[in-house]
Write a structure and sequence with these properties.
Length: 274
């Protein structure tokens, strides 16, 4: 079982475009005990999917709050307004995690809750800070370590209105400021950080074909602009973290990449086209 888990992990990062390449690759290595000890399993969610409390504590809308109100955009008509009400029920949810033996919880911070105005230099929401510090303390008290994502698809609507979010260079400075505020405010409680959740999804579905909020349908132009500014914002945030907030080298930072399992269309080499 351990070997299978490692095989999935290695294969998940592998991108191939040739059937011959796929078939010529050696099998994935089995997990050694020392490798398995480095793998940390847990559960995960995101602010827009779980928190609710959409207007609580001065939180400003995210693009999902606006997008979900448009008829036909969300299949069952649900919205982030309440979601699973983690904002009010986080203690019960964390107790459930503990009862399941969970040791790691991947979650995200709502940019709109921490910084309602969202832009560089704007003030934090005291209620937002209090909420997340309470969540992190509750997790620690229950033996669960948080792994915190800064952007899980929930662009503040104020930035979308101001300059179309990830389609403008100004996003880099605003995101870097948001990231630094988070590092400074919660760095004593959080050791593991993720800048962006699944950039492919962000740029293709949010700013390319418009399936996800904010529903921008700019095609390839939107995708490439988004990707360009997203990577620069990621680099800036990582630099700030490493130079100013991780001097003891105990923290970790990266981004979460989207991938899918792929297998050859056929086990034959020649004469097969799809």
């Amino acid at each position: 079982m351990a070997g299978k888990a490692c095989a999935l992990g290695f294969a998940g990062w592998l991108l191939v475009s040739s059937l011959v390449v796929v078939q010529s690759l050696p099998g994935p290595p089995e997990c050694k005990a020392e490798t398995l000890q480095k793998v940390e399993f847990g559960v995960g969610s995101s602010a827009a999917q779980s928190e609710g409390g959409a207007a609580a504590g001065g939180r400003s809308p995210s693009v999902w709050d606006i997008f979900a109100k448009q008829p036909g955009k969300i299949q069952d008509g649900s919205s982030p307004a309440v979601a699973t009400d983690f904002f009010n029920k986080y203690k019960q949810d964390i107790a459930l995690m503990k009862s399941m033996g969970v040791k790691n919880f991947r979650m995200s911070i709502s940019w709109s809750r921490l910084l309602p105005q969202a832009v560089k230099g704007s003030s934090t929401s005291p209620e937002g800070v209090q909420f997340y510090r309470a969540v992190f303390k509750e997790l620690k008290d229950n033996g669960i370590e948080p792994a915190v994502t800064l952007y899980h698809w929930d662009m503040p609507q104020v930035l979308q209105d101001k300059y179309q979010g990830l389609l403008d260079r100004q996003f880099i400075d605003d995101f870097t400021y948001f990231a630094e505020v988070a590092f400074k405010t919660f760095g004593d409680q959080v050791r593991k950080w993720t800048t962006f959740n699944e950039p492919w999804v962000t740029c293709n579905l949010q700013y390319g074909n418009g399936d996800f909020a904010p529903g921008i349908t700019y095609g390839d132009s939107g995708k490439w602009k988004c990707g360009h500014y997203l990577l620069l914002a990621h680099a800036n945030a990582v630099r700030v973290f490493r130079q100013k907030y991780n001097t003891n080298k105990k923290g970790r930072i990266g981004m979460a990449l989207w991938s899918e399992w792929s297998e050859p269309w056929t086990d034959k080499f020649e004469g097969e086209t799809r």
